[in-house]
Amino acid sequence: MSVPLILMIERLEHDQICHDNTGPHKVESSKPKSWSGILSSFKPKPITKDPPNFISVPLTYNEDDYLNWLIVQDFVQPTSTMSVQEAVSRMIETFANYGHNIRSVGTFIITMAEQIPYWHPSQLKLARLLWTLGRSEERLRKIKPVHCPEQTIDQFYQDLKEDMTENEADPGSESEADQVIYVNYQAFLANVHALEVWEASPEPAIWAMKRAFKPKLEPWELDMADYYVMGAAQWVVWNGQGLFKMILQHDADASTWTATSFDEKSPPEIQQLTLELWESWKNEFDKAGDDEKVGAEARNLAMRAAATMQGLQRTMQF
Q1: Cβ proximity of 317 and 245 under 8 Å
Q2: What InterPro entries has UniProt attached to this entry (predicted)?
Q3: How far is CA 149 from CA 92, 101, 145, 153, 198, in A?
């Protein structure tokens, strides 16, 4: 059984928060609703700083996973002084019982990220934790890999990619909790891509944009329109520079994406991330930012995304 979800952050704002050039401010919006609806199911748990054999592990839970959960929970606290390297070292200390099989660690870190609001700094900390854990020389020394270190590192991130795909929230769910999780997931995935954990690819960003800017939403998708826009905006806010670099490289191998279309009966789509596509996204965000039918938080994010795209285009082109 996996470790239960518990509150990772000492205090999160229970009101919706938006950010603009004047700083954070509260907004009144009917949708998406306050994050408190998602966070209310969590209860604080005591945190210990010393890795310790005296912790009472709940029955039926794996001891190693539970200890690692406590370490990561401590690490993501806004007031924590634990460095990412210290967190990784303490996690590696618990690996003795199952050697290099740390795939479950990646899984619960993804689960954590899905529960943390897209704007919270802990999203960045979790992405950096995964980047550091996979490349840790201390981990490689401890597990004494059969294969060369490069292959062992590659395997860690290949497993992570599979887990990210398997854990993607369903934006088509009628559950508002799942829709909020979808936005948080897109923020985390964008942060992981920004660290270049994997080879650069526009695929997840293009999928998010296609969901947000479909010419016509199905009737059952109308309640999800705001979340689609918010999810797409995460790719600009957290990885916009990386996406625009793909355009500047003029590298067809790096910026071309092929996948099945939304309509499974249609032939596969081949799309390249070009300046024209970038500008079309910016225009769509501009329209969403001016659309009063769009919720306040989604409009704010759309305006921020459009401004960011314009700024990147202006400053990165010479």
Answers
A1: no
A2: OpdG, Oxopyrrolidines_Biosynth-assoc
A3: 16, 15, 7, 6, 16
